[in-house]
Amino acid sequence: MSMFSIYTKSENCQKLTSDEAFELINTSNNDLSELLDYANRLREKFFGNKVILCGIINAKSGKCSEDCSFCAQSAHHKTNVEEYPLLSKEKILQAVESAKENDTGCFSIVTSGKGYISSSQEMERILDVVKDISGVKKCASLGLLSLEQAKKLKEAGLEKFHHNLETAESFFPNMCNTHMYQDRIETIKNAKSAGLKVCVGGIFGIGETAKQRVELGMAISELDVDSVPINIVHPIEGTKIYGKTQKLEVNEVLKIIATFRFLMPNKVIGVFGGRESSLGERQNEIFKAGANSILVGNYLTVKGNKAEDDKQMLRELGLEPVSEFK
Ligand code: SF4
């Protein structure tokens, strides 16, 4: 099928087949500008020049029981990551205020750990913080979540829950052995059933094939999520994947972003972890590839660009940060 025909399907929000998505992700470098032109058109059609800036706080760090191969916070890995229990309400609210100064539209409280929020005190503190956050969209990323917990978070005013699938189902056992892909699907469904919006993405460069990238994109599209963060692995010494990660070329990263834009034309596609390290000077091209969200400030265990540099990049591109798309 021609790229134009695939674009036309996508523009009309018709579901693409895996084969069509595979054609896109396999676009040759010679045809890359055509792919990016179409992806850019889709972004502009559905979102104009609006972008969402997200901010996060690593509110509980390290000592995670899980063994995700890329993660510095896993207790299975010997990394130099800082470890601390759930931060106080004051510290989290301070971080929200700093994020607001960076035009952050959506702020997420992120905790390490398998999830099912480990104690009732933790749950109470998180609910209490969520109630008091104002001026940004309220998001949380707390690992696996039961339906009952999701309902409590929703009642407290949480708007969105973030939970990545991370990778394709067929590659998942290579990435993690301590929980199942299905556990993640269940959590996303629980969050949706409770009325929360969901942010579901993945990480690339951990050994998956192009087919598996498409498999992940198709699975996320099937879940009908609200936003999709794309992360590129940032190899951290001591993790299981260290020394074995794929070095993704910039063009390859742009093809992943563009393919996800085609697969989910009217959803928010973000480029989060690994943006600086994988794209360097070419970070501004992610928007042409169809992205309309970035994470500003620091990541969970790695420092990001200076927020002012990101804002300058957006100004140069004529992009306007908003907290939601009307
Ligand atoms: S990605 Fe999440 S669940 Fe996996 S090891 Fe890291 S903190 Fe734990």
Q: Can you say what the CATH homologous superfamily is? A: Aldolase class I
The CATH class is identified as: Alpha Beta
For the CA atoms, what is the radius of gyration? 19 Å
Main sheet specs = 10 strands, parallel
Note the run of SSEs as H and E.
HHHEHEHEHEHHEEHEHEHHEHE
Tally of discrete structural domains: 1
Bound molecules: iron/sulfur cluster
> Beta fraction of the residues?
5-15%
Please state the second-level CATH architecture.
Alpha-Beta Barrel
**Low-confidence runs of at least 5 consecutive residues:** none
How is this fold's topology laid out?
Blueprint: H1 3-11, H2 18-25, H3 32-47, E1 50-60, H4 89-101, E2 106-111, H5 120-132, E3 137-141, H6 147-156, E4 160-162, H7 172-175, H8 181-193, E5 197-199, E6 202-204, H9 210-222, E7 227-232, H10 250-263, E8 268-271, H11 275-279, H12 285-288, E9 293-295, H13 307-317, E10 320-322
Parallel strand pairs: 1-2, 1-9, 1-10, 2-3, 3-4, 4-5, 6-7, 7-8, 8-9
This protein binds iron/sulfur cluster (SF4).
Iron/sulfur cluster binds next to loops.
